[in-house]
Amino acid sequence: MVELVPSILSADFARLAEEIAAAERGGGTVIHVDVMDGHFVPNITIGPPVVASLRKATKLPLDCHLMIENPDEFIPAFADAGANWVSVHYEACRHLHRTLELIASHGMKPGVVLNPATRVEVIRDILPMVHHVLIMSVNPGFGGQKFIEFSLDKIRELARLRAELGLRFRIEVDGGVAHDTVERVVQAGAELLVAGNAVFGAGDAERHARDLLDAAKRAAG
Ligand code: DX5
Ligand code: ZN
Predict the structure, then answer these.
(1) Whole-model pTM?
(2) Which residues are recorded as binding a divalent metal cation (predicted)?
């Protein structure tokens, strides 16, 4: 089933509770939280204290996308803050297997993220451990970037691998998901559609979320 995962990166950070409520009314079912440290990516955003506040503002699962070096150091703090899903970058983890176990041991759903330049094949052996795989369809760091077309091949490859291995992890896509790309993204096999700019970039998040989700559902058939 296709789900809309609004990314608060493009929301008004002074009005996060209202923005999330609007996106939820528009059909968003998971809230995507982009955590950036200024080292792994060239931008800085938010951390556990904001997650703890968001936890009080919504009942929806909080999907924390960690774009940080040394994620192991911060996983307990995200658990304490009330994060539900935590995904870490393949490129940021020296011991990915251990990091995924650490996330699960804190009662959260582990996910792994691949940058555009990273091949799907490299995560084959750890796929049984993950709840979701996030395919980056832009280089991480900023909202509102242009969708990278070859991400569609990676989504298809991941769906093929999931079938081959008989697994059930969910396929998430992040970056440039908007009206001009959503149909192809869904048809390639993505089920969790992260969208920042397309939901929050132009006011009226409720309407923009609903329009995008409707388009996604039509594409899913
Ligand atoms: C980028 C973030 C994305 C971002 C996507 O590093 O991981 O979650 O919010 O933004 P849009 O949907 O605007 O491309
Ligand atoms: Zn993200």
Answers:
(1) 0.98
(2) 32, 34, 65, 174
CA atoms within 13 A on the CB side of 59: 1
Q: CATH class for domain 3-220?
A: alpha beta
The pLDDT value recorded for residue 202 is: 96
Question: Residues 74-99: pLDDT tens digits?
Answer: 999 999 999 999 999 999 999 999 99
Residues near 124 by beta carbon (within 8 Å), at least 6 away in sequence: 161, 165
Give yes or no for a contact between 145 and 111, defined as CB atoms under 8 angstroms apart. no
> How far apart are the CA of 194 and the centre of ligand 2, in A?
7
**Ligand 1 lined by 152 (C-beta under 6 Å):** no
Q: What is the mean pLDDT of the chain?
A: 98
Name the helix (H) or strand (E) containing 194: strand 192-195
Angle at 187 between CA 154 and CA 41, to 5 degrees: 40
Could you tell me the pLDDT band of residue 163, with boundaries at 50, 70 and 90?
Answer: very high
Locate the ligand 1 atom nearest the alpha carbon of residue 199 and give its number. Answer: 12
Instruction: Return the active site residues.
Output: 34, 174
Assess contact for 130 and 110: CB atoms under 8 A: yes
Give residue limits of the domains in the chain.
Answer: 3-220
